[in-house]
C-alpha cells in the first residue's frame, strides 16, 4: 500500500526527521512515496543502513518523488515498479 508524505514545504532537517519517522511505521507490503523539493542525498546512507531500498524520480514540477520500501519486501518492490515509469 502506498503511503504519501509531502515534505516539500518544510525547512531543512524536518523532511529528514519526518521520513525517518514514517519509514519506522511501514508494514510489510507498504512503501512510502515522498514529495520533496530537492533530492535528499543525506537520507540515502541512512536508508541503506536501516535496511531500506529507494528510487528517486524527478517530477514534472521540478521536485522529486522518492519511493522507499523495506529491502527484500517483494510486494512493496513490485508495487513501486508498477507505480513508476
Which regions contain 5 or more consecutive residues with pLDDT less than 50?
A: none
DSSP helix fraction: 25-40%
Number of domains: 1
Strand pairing plus helix content: what structural class?
alpha+beta
Please state the CA-atom Rg, rounded to the nearest Å: 12 Å
Which percent range describes the beta-strand content? 25-35%
Largest sheet: 4 strands, mixed
How large is the count of helical segments?
3
Distance between the termini: 18 Å
And the CATH topology? Translation Initiation Factor IF3
Mean pLDDT: 96
CATH class: Alpha Beta
How many strand segments?
A: 4
Question: In one word, what is the shape?
Answer: globular
Q: Determine the CATH superfamily.
A: TusA-like domain
From the 3D coordinates, which CATH architecture would you assign? 2-Layer Sandwich
Pattern of helices and strands: EHEHEEH
Strand order of the largest sheet: 1-2-4-3
Describe this structure in words.
There is one protein chain. The protein is α+β, with helices and mostly antiparallel strands and 85 residues long. The chain has a single domain, classed as TusA-like domain (Translation Initiation Factor IF3, 2-Layer Sandwich), CATH 3.30.110. The protein is 32% helix and 29% strand. The protein has three helices and four strands; from the N terminus they run E-H-E-H-E-E-H. The chain has helices at residues 14-23, 43-49, 74-83, and strands spanning 2-6, 31-36, 52-58, 64-70. The chain has a four-stranded mixed beta sheet. Helix 1 (14-23) links the parallel strand 1 (2-6) and strand 2. The two termini are 18 Å apart. The mean pLDDT is 96.
Amino acid at each position: 500500500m502506498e503511503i504519501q508524505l509531502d515534505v516539500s514545504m518544510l525547512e531543512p532537517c524536518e523532511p529528514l526527521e519526518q521520513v525517518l519517522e514514517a519509514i519506522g511505521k511501514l508494514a510489510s507490503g507498504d512503501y512510502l512515496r515522498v514529495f520533496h523539493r530537492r533530492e535528499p542525498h543525506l537520507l540515502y546512507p541512512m536508508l541503506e543502513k536501516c535496511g531500506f531500498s529507494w528510487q528517486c524520480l524527478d517530477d514534472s514540477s521540478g521536485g522529486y518523488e522518492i519511493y522507499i520500501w523495506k529491502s527484500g519486501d517483494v510486494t512493496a518492490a513490485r508495487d513501486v515498479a508498477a507505480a513508476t515509469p
